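debug: dumping io for the single-chain case to check the tokenizer round-trip. Nothing else runs in this session.
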Amino acid sequence: MLKIHIRFYNSKSSLAVFVLQEEKAEEAIALMEECLKAYKSWGSEDQFPFEYSKYYNTTVAFMQLGCFEEALAFSKRACELQVAHSGPNGHTSLAFYFMLGNIYYMKGDINSALELNIRVLENRRKILESTF
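debug: decoded output
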């Protein structure tokens, strides 16, 4: 039964991403709040880091609303949880770190943004080099 719930809320979180692309930040946040309630009923962040990381990756909604402190806090937590799920060099971890770098940039912290994005680029380069 849990697998069915996970699939349902995966769909709901995907809908939130679509809604964000339509620049409907409040609606996306409401959808992800529904997801968070479900995640909490399943277990802790330690048990379901991937699911919780999707909730915290609603940083784009906060960025659309101009709430950069919330975006930064959520993005940092999304990175921590995603690293717990797939490691620091997992594809999604690197994508989340890239988003975090963009938030630093938008807040005017150019040094942190550049440092983080260089790290993402170097790790992606290593992954590609090991593939070919």
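debug: round-trip ok. The helical segments are 2-21, 25-42, 49-56, 59-64, 68-86, 91-107, 110-131.
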